[in-house]
Amino acid sequence: MKNISILGSTGSIGIQALDVVRLHPDRFSVSALAAGANVELLERQVREFSPSLVSCSTEKVARELKTRLAGHNRPLWIGHSDEGLRRCTVAEDIDLVVGGLPGSAGLVPAFAAVEAGKDLALATKEVLVMAGRLFMDTVRQEGIALLPVDSEQSAIFQCLEGHRKSHVKRIILTASGGPFRDMPAPEMAYVTPAEALKHPRWKMGPKVTLDSATLMNKGLEVVEARWLFDVPPERIEVVIHPQSICHSMVEFDDGSVLAQLGATDMRIPISYALAYPDRIDSGAEAVSFPLLGALTFHEPDMVKFPLLKAAYDALAAGGSAPIVLNAADEVAVDLFLGGKIPFDRIAAIVMNCLNAIPCAPAETLKEIVSFHEYVTERVRADWPEFAK
Amino acid sequence: MKNISILGSTGSIGIQALDVVRLHPDRFSVSALAAGANVELLERQVREFSPSLVSCSTEKVARELKTRLAGHNRPLWIGHSDEGLRRCTVAEDIDLVVGGLPGSAGLVPAFAAVEAGKDLALATKEVLVMAGRLFMDTVRQEGIALLPVDSEQSAIFQCLEGHRKSHVKRIILTASGGPFRDMPAPEMAYVTPAEALKHPRWKMGPKVTLDSATLMNKGLEVVEARWLFDVPPERIEVVIHPQSICHSMVEFDDGSVLAQLGATDMRIPISYALAYPDRIDSGAEAVSFPLLGALTFHEPDMVKFPLLKAAYDALAAGGSAPIVLNAADEVAVDLFLGGKIPFDRIAAIVMNCLNAIPCAPAETLKEIVSFHEYVTERVRADWPEFAK
User: Fold this and answer.
1) What is the pLDDT of residues B283-300, one digit of tens each?
2) Do B287 and A251 touch (CB under 8 A)?
3) Does residue A285 belong to the interface with chain B, where contact is any CB pair within 8 Å?
4) Domain spans, chain B
5) Cis before residue B179, ω within 30 degrees of 0?
6) Using a CB-CB distance cutoff of 8 angstroms, which residues of chain B are in contact with residue A170?
7) Is B262's Cβ below 8 Å from some Cβ in A?
8) Which of A103, A46, A102, A55 is CA-nearest to residue A81?
9) Which of residues 292-321 of A touch B (CB under 8 A)?
10) B16-48 pLDDT per residue, tens
């Protein structure tokens, strides 16, 4: 029996992780659930999976959960905020933590999980974007299993299993291209949040969906792959693959390419990370290749989607540039979803921030967090300037 | 330094294996070359690669080779026929044997290589078709590395590396569909040998090319995969993939599919088998996914190509039925290439033989060889009857 903790249990990854857990009661036990403010769903999850620890975003939410669970007759600790989250991450009986918190909020808990020696199924790409080198050093020091939950990184991970990394020539990240793949560039200024939140292939949280529409998501994955698989950026290629059946590929020195394919169902990478090195029923449907139609691939348009190029630039600049990239994008996406800027200003803000905000030392977790906070504050304050 | 012996050095596999060897003089040394009657090419190969053993098909050819090599100043033993072939297979300094002999001729040498403890890069699919169970038992007993050279089997082998076979749900063998994929069935009676020998994707020997045109080749690969990967036939699926970029796939229990892709260049699977577990430059070009166009997949037409179904039937019948399948096909292809029967009679002969010739005990290598000879003789004698 594997005892798991799910950070972000009411989000897209958390819900789908619990779908997988539900299929395998003999294999997984839920030790802890941490969520934000969706107290209704959290209550249902607690009743169904009987964790011994729960954490909510605030004391108020925690109180409401306690009231709702008055009749619940299993031993249960309910906490909140950073301390609640921490306990749901490091408690002794936890074997594996599912890191499904959205955005930079997932950073500190991911480090806490690894430092406590927990295996980590990591969905939060910001961890590797903001703190790639430090995080991978910590993973190696602690000797834990780091299992990527992103479909692309899981694909690459699966293609590398059993093969020597020294023979990797290229990593080929596939991208659906998002909802505006074929939209003429001038029209992109008029895209609404509702349009940008409709992903053609994947059901995901709002930030990731929005980032898919700008290809920023693929840029973040380039940074992530660089650290996760220790491959220099010039060996990471992005290819648009609108059908999202091939989830990424690895090319080796002999010209052989291994690819991982499957339904566009996050339960495949989630179940792989939960059960690794086993494979279990994920609940996903099998792909019928004769029914697929054609699989196509083409080059990304880095002029129309400058944030993909910005990610490569940030990697090349090194140091804390990826932190600027990520923080500026978080703020810009918020501004767009709040109706304050048009769609094409997201990229403008990120690129202007990369040019304007000088790198800072960011080698410890504390420095990384405080530089992220500094950039976030600065972009929030000066966004009309950066959006020009 | 790995000392290799190439059986069938002047054939398609042998020539391409030597292409790979030529790229890596620091890694491979050629100990032995065995070929048929192409004495001119064999002479050139001997002069270039300086093996210490050579074997030709007949004494006459061996004599001619000796004359041609009169001025060759390296120590060289030149033999012929079964004994020459055997010495080129089992000589003490050989580390790895490339089994590239065409058809049933490759059977006995493959067993000899394994029994002598040599690693074996096996291209001759008839070995597993005719003697699958016995051969795999021998491989396991001797503990040698059996490395498939067929592009499809190599693809599956690569996809399984590092993953547990107990989690395999399906093996998906891809097939180009051959040159007559889109030809209406009634026209197939009028196909000429020259048309059938033009494969749209792969450059291969005549027997394999012809078998690709009837899909018999894929049928033989189904039988081969059944033994090579110990997967029951109902878990082996064939999918037509005209572009021949995806060389085969493995689906796992979680719905995840691993695929191996690459240029249609046999030097990729050959170099993989030669260097395993390393990967080396194969000389093949990299695939550019944006330039590929579309990859398509569809179901094979088992009515138009009944030999694919015949292979599944022979596997289901078990025992010596695959020997009948293979021997009848060898004779029928010869008859077609000799202009004695129309194209569509190849399948008729094979299917009628499967129905008419009862299975025989074929559990030892001797029994397998003699049953193969019996079927071959009988089909050669009675083909006008079987072709009806």
Assistant:
1) 999 999 999 989 999 999
2) yes
3) yes
4) 2-148, 154-264+291-386
5) no
6) 286
7) yes
8) A55
9) 292-299
10) 999 999 999 999 999 999 999 999 999 999 999
